[in-house]
Amino acid sequence: MDQKEKRLIRKVKKGDQQAFAELVDRYKNSVFAISLRMVGNTQEAEDLSQETFIRAFNHIDQYDHDRKFSTWLFRIATNISIDFLRRRKANVSLDAVVPGTEGLALSTIIPDGGELPDEMMMRKETEEMVQLEIRKLPEKYRSAVILKYIEDLSLKEISEVMDIPVGTVKTRIHRGREMLRKSITAGGGMRE
Amino acid sequence: MNCTSKKYLALMNKVLDHEATKQEEQVLDQHLALCEECRMHFNQLKYSTNLLNQLAHPQLPVGFTKSVLEQLPLEKRHAIREWGSRHPMLTAVAICAVPTLVMIGARHQNRSKNDYVLINASSDQS
């Protein structure tokens, strides 16, 4: 962790909200990516990202300077997403429609009414398919896979975020990867 | 997978985790060259993880940070200062009230001390 970040966190511990704003700017898109891939819906992911930062601010005293700040923050983000998924599961009956995977990246790139070029359309379809398959993974595999492939964390870092041994992280990633392989390549085979 | 050995599946995972030695990579390569089933399995794994890697990282709306800040609890020190500037009369009263209360309190204490002395004195007399 760089010196500037340490300084910012010290300020936040004294209640400095401007310093906290800088931390939010640094990490908001990473936190959003985790939430989005965990729950699969942009609006919900945005709300969960806000909740993550608010919880981080309120509990900043519990942050230990010897660990990476991002690790601590990502842990809050995954926990909040998992809590949310459990609440949703409890509220939604089994045959209810699953909330959509609408508006992933493309809605922010393409202006209203603009037509999708074929390639973008394909890309969007693939993204939606992958997102759907990620959402079918059991939560513990899902968070491990997301931290590895979306956030690009090392196995060691993932073990710190999830507070489990590296060996367990590996098992979860291997199983998650195997499940995704099966579902992604089922039937249609591979698309290039 | 029908390929009898789980050894190669473990090797695939090692390679994908970037934890395989050069030698282990060679062993896997040699096997994949011969076993079509394992080759397909490995390609499917790589294909799936590539798709994950390629997922877009969408951006949050511009006002995100601001709306987070708006939901934070007010800073304590600032909260007192803001209250003061919003209620100048009350603040003045509060500031004057403190020494007044202290004085009243002190006099009250003195008086009760005197009473005590008086009572003691009267009890001595009897």
TrEMBL record, chain A:
Residues 23-89 form the RNA polymerase sigma-70 region domain. Keywords: Sigma factor, Transcription, Transcription regulation. Residues 129-180 form the RNA polymerase sigma factor 70 region 4 type domain. It comes from the Bacteria. It holds the Pfam family Sigma70_r2. InterPro entries: RNA_pol_sigma-70-like, RNA_pol_sigma-70_dom, RNA_pol_sigma-W_bacilli, RNA_pol_sigma70_r2, RNA_pol_sigma70_r4_t2, RNA_pol_sigma_r2, RNA_pol_sigma_r3/r4-like, WH-like_DNA-bd_sf. Belongs to the sigma-70 factor family. ECF subfamily. This is RNA polymerase sigma factor SigW. It comes from Sporolactobacillus kofuensis.
UniProtKB/TrEMBL annotation, chain B:
InterPro entries: Znf_put. Residues 7-39 form the Putative zinc-finger domain. This is Anti-sigma factor family protein. It comes from Sporolactobacillus kofuensis. The lineage of its organism: Bacteria, Bacillati, Bacillota, Bacilli, Bacillales.
